[in-house]
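Worked example

This section walks through a single chain of length 448. The input is the sequence exactly as stored; nothing has been trimmed or padded.
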Amino acid sequence: MKNKLIITLLLLTSYLQAQEKKESYSFSLKEAIDYALEHNYSVINANRDVASAKQKKWETTALGLPQLSGSVGYLNNIDFTLQGVSGNAFNPNGNPDDISLFAFGTKQSMNSNLTLSQLIFDGSYIVALQASKTYLKFYENAKQKTNLEIREMVINAYGNVLLAEESIAILEKNKVTLSKTLSDTQETFKNGLIEEENVEQLQITLASINSNLINVKRLIEIANKMLKLSLGIEINSEVQLTDKLDSLTASNLDLAFIQNGFEVSQSINYQMASNLQEQRSLELKLQKSKALPSLGAAYNFGYNSFSNEFSFADSNQKWNRFSNLGVSLNVPIFSSLGRSAKTQQAKIALEQAKTQLTQTEQQIKLEYERAKSDYDFSIEEYATSKSNLNLAERIEKKQQIKFTEGLSSSFDFNEAQRQLYTAQQNYLQSMVNIINKKASLDKIINKN
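Given that input, the structure is written out below as tokens.
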């Protein structure tokens, strides 16, 4: 009994802890976008890319700044390296054919030094500084593109969840209405006033509604998880959406917006293609700069000491100071046309980048016209579907009255119902289309 109680308490504690860890969120569409632009996984890594590019820029800058390095060396000559000397070099009376062996140096030695170096002139370094700025700009543009893509993704995911919620609400309403009609029709059939076919036709329609309702309830789970993934939160968390589909549709009905002009340079894709062209131009400058001389200087300062015993830590040990200053000039003279070949390759790459920029410009213009046309059509489609829904509701209502009074067949009533259900879904989809098409257009013109 005691063990069962302990196990029960442990299970209860685990359950309560799991409940505590399950976070809950509430977002309007704007809040969802703002949250995603901070917590989405792709956005986080895009920010890291920019931070890394900034460090890379400083790494390049530091190459032209003073460099200081230090070293400490210790040498113990366990066995001396012997040098041979011919004949009587040190002994005039010796045999000229004899070889004398000598060991130079001391048993132990130690030295320490500091080296200060400074690049004075290098054309490659100047170009590298310019390229580092372009490198950073590329990743900043890439981050901006990621933000635009995540913004569109969140809008689409948010709209899909709202679409599923509205679809469930309409299907539930249709189910209640049709269930009541079916119940009344069954009573009428029991009294022998109508044929059984009328009841069966309604049963088929109700079964179709139930099937659609079950399917949409499954889809809303997937839509919710897609939204959570876009936001960068745990997919098992609870998320409440505060905006409604009709209000978002109204806020995206911007007729004045589509009349405004569009500059291709606003597009982030154009900016990135332009950035690539600038990089290729700098690569050409880099190859040309390699034909220029480079100049550098270095100053060395240090101490060394020699002893047959390890006495370098003694206060009376003698240390010998040394220092030197050096300047080096490197002048490229002849590379067997190797530099020329690399320069020509850089020129070709630059021409390719220019062509790619022109192609990108034309593609963006086409994408803008297509997106603008799709947005225009979504507005027209919304107005049409709204009008059709009103007509379908009136037709279905009239057919229901006629059917109840026995003036219309079940086929006519069923056809009016199907027309209404289709009009309802078309109306909901038209609202989502406006939101999504506006988001696509915003992405092209780089609108946040």
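What to look for: The chain has a mean pLDDT of 89.
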